[in-house]
Description:
Elements: H1 11-18, H2 23-31, E1 36-39, H3 46-59, E2 66-70, H4 77-81, E3 85-88, H5 94-98, E4 105-108, H6 120-137, E5 142-148, E6 155-156, H7 172-192, E7 195-201, E8 204-205, H8 211-220, E9 225-226, E10 231-232, E11 235-236, H9 237-247, E12 256-260, E13 266-267, H10 268-279, E14 285-286, E15 292-293, H11 299-305, H12 312-324
Parallel strand pairs: 1-2, 1-4, 2-3, 4-5, 5-7, 7-12, 8-11, 9-14
Antiparallel strand pairs: 6-15, 10-13
Amino acid sequence: xxxxxxxxxxxxxxxxxxxxxxxxxxxxxxxxxxxxxxxxxxxxxxxxxxxxxxxxxxxxxxxxxxxxxxxxxxxxxxxxxxxxxxxxxxxxxxxxxxxxxxxxxxxxxxxxxxxxxxxxxxxxxxxxxxxxxxxxxxxxxxxxxxxxxxxxxxxxxxxxxxxxxxxxxxxxxxxxxxxxxxxxxxxxxxxxxxxxxxxxxxxxxxxxxxxxxxxxxxxxxxxxxxxxxxxxxxxxxxxxxxxxxxxxxxxxxxxxxxxxxxxxxxxxxxxxxxxxxxxxxxxxxxxxxxxxxxxxxxxxxxxxxxxxxxxxxxxxxxxxxxxxxxxxxxxxxxxxxxxxxxx
Length: 343
């Protein structure tokens, strides 16, 4: 992305930056046949994904459908007000899923994480039963299915992160259910020739939520930052969505796997100290780094798509300004420090 601003002042400006397509995405849309449907479009990342897809198609000079689907009508209101084609569908209902349009490209974003502990059966239903319902119907589609780096084991910092060839070893029922989601798509990919790419994401960030927002908010409020999980990977949400849309071209049978995150592993402690410097606040800490965490190696994605257009340092500066001026929060803590799989 060219000409990045020094600061982002409004949600409107933020949304515009998040959904501005780069040249590589526009080129990919020209190569991609068929319309696009976003399942789970009303979540944190869904609106960015939907609007980015539409703007990329428009920039490519293509008149294709982008259909946003969610179970909650209210979650789709903003997209509908911007002229996006929306549909309400309870994806837990197999009959309702079967009535969705037969669209060639699917971005599957449905999932449940927070609040999983104590309501495990609902987590499994959303993360495994719903993927079955979708995969059973869209056997002729390309599917970019959101997953998570949490299906990998917690790794030592010295490992340089999990690559796509590392066998999964999920900790806790949330991560186990996410592997179950992958396996549902794997089954139909192997049995029916469904083309799938699993997107193992760690972690998308923007100014209103994410690992970096959590750290910045704690520094701003004078709260100690837990550094037990002392290292993390993140990627600007607009870049994550761009890579996912481009990854539709990678969908295959059997399914392929793609890690999506930034090119560097950063220190939570050092990020907190930088936020403190930028915001004029002292950073305080609790815990001690144990040298372990959910660490992804995104070399494959970076070779395919190049490095993210918004560098880590720029994201930190943007978030510091946003938090210090009282910018809005989505109120959704990431729990990035969790290593025991309980969310």
